[in-house]
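Self-study notes.
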Amino acid sequence: MTDLVTDFLKSPLIELRLWRQFLAVAEELHFSRAARRLNMTQPPLTQAIAQLEVLLGLKLFDRTKRSVELTVAGMALIPEARDLLTRAYALPAYARASADGEAGRLRLAFVSTVGFDLLPGWVRAFREQHPKVQLELIEATGDVQLQAFERGEIDAGFMLHSPGFAPPGLVCRRIAQDPLVVAVPEQSDLAAKDRITLDDLIEQPLVIFPRRILPSLYDAIFAMYHASGQLPRVAQEAIQMQTIVNLVSAGLGIAWVPDSVRQFQRPGVVYRTLFSTKPPANVIGRTKGRAGSTRPGKAHPTEVPGCETSLIWSNTSANPVLARFVAFIGQSAE
């Protein structure tokens, strides 16, 4: 136990009543008037001030038969005592507001893509409607958010994922849908094309996030390549979408990003929508069998996966602020 904690535990607890009496005398500088203001007689008030001075080990007033003056210590205590009483009087209202979700704290995680467009406006509006709520914002990828939920470190999170994603043990409410677009270096031949197909991208090095941080969307992107009988050529992995776009700008490859990332105006990068095409000729009408043989199959155009942004939270949370925030996002995202 630290010396500071030890000293605190040994120090006397001073009742709010004594501070109210101190302020009355400090403001009136007259014991009789202060007593009338407090609806009490003068002798008990004089005894209360003497008790406070003993507890503090300080002299707060210089008293004569004709005058009462504050000491330096007494003068210094006036603003602190006023603040203490103001906060004490506000406690009942704060407790009621906390129970109703109008005050308290919400720990909100978010992925960077939400910060490009949706999050700033929502945060501003929620704070305007609920000024007594402390909103603690934490930027975190999906895998980090799931771990934080398990440890009880966050109340809710905005998470990017592929359609149909359902985190076990958590509530998932979709708030936005985004198509995937291709980020390509501005100096590449692809940037000059009006129409880009998957055939144009097969041999291009790919910059992508690690599977562990967004497995559902990672698998959907790989499945798109697999459907055309190809494997993407991964050149570099990066965690944040801003970093991925920066690496594209540096010419390290192309990247699949949510359309909302267009808001991140990075010089040297252009965004293109993929046009649907049929699979390459060597796989049209044929699919691989279990032992590597081929069998007749149906050709399908390339389907570019989409992605969704959802608000994730635990339905076992007892935080009343969370219910307020979920309702707010439900209205704002409509």
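Second protein, same conventions, sequence then structure:
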Amino acid sequence: MSGPVIHIDETEDFPVGPQEPSERFGATVSPLARALGLSGLGAMLTEVAPGKRAFPFHNHLGNDELFVILEGEGIYRFGEQEFPVRVGSVCGAPRGGPETAHQLINTGAGPLRYVAVSTMQDPDICEYPDSGKFSAFAVAPGPDFQDAHLRFVGRREDGLNYWEGET
């Protein structure tokens, strides 16, 4: 733990997105919750480049999320709707099916910065309506999503029969 108070401008960030340069994705995130000693609540500062997004359009079956816009402007995709966001906007993403899928897109000329806060129900399942994928992951005992204990990304049709390899 760094302490009960940290400053977001003094946190270490790392890039998220595809390994190859992408026309759609480009962002950095700075973990906040772990530095504050929190284990039941997730929080990270996210900075998205102009015209980009940090993460694919997705919904969580196990966790709620909340986003507080600190800088810039964009569009908040939520289910089948889109909402303009700007400094001071607060966006909710309750757990649920594709009707709660969400994504922030930077439509401004400068960075879009926001704090993302989430519950930390582990394991969690995410669905990605745009690509037809899903992910199942259990972070514990790993330290974070990047180093999750178990993680699988696939499509429903990729699944095995329950008894595959058991007989």
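Instructor comment on the second fold: The radius of gyration is 17 Å.
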